[in-house]
Amino acid sequence: MERQKLNPTIQYVLSIVGFLCCCLSGLGFIPAGIAFYMANQKLKEAANDPEIYDGVQAMKTAKTVSLVVLILNLLYLAYTIYLISTIGWTELQEQQQDLIEQWGLQ
Question: Rounded distance, CA 36 to CA 29, Å?
Fold first, then answer.
């Protein structure tokens, strides 16, 4: 039987996109979660028939990277929800506007 190579490229790309989207109130949990799910599924396939798969270690690394990015995003999302619930959306927007004016970005 021919050996199949596990290619974790898409998982890495989704993890990087998720990490970059971490700054957007933690919304990067979506691509990071997809990457984690995909890596987990590929590793389950490889566990069922390990002798025909190459690249299992690379896929395990991709799974770990996506899990770390997922956790970071979920923590940032929880922090954002906490901020909105304690100081309110309007106050949060005013603080953000003050920072933009302070940095001269507008």
Answer: 10
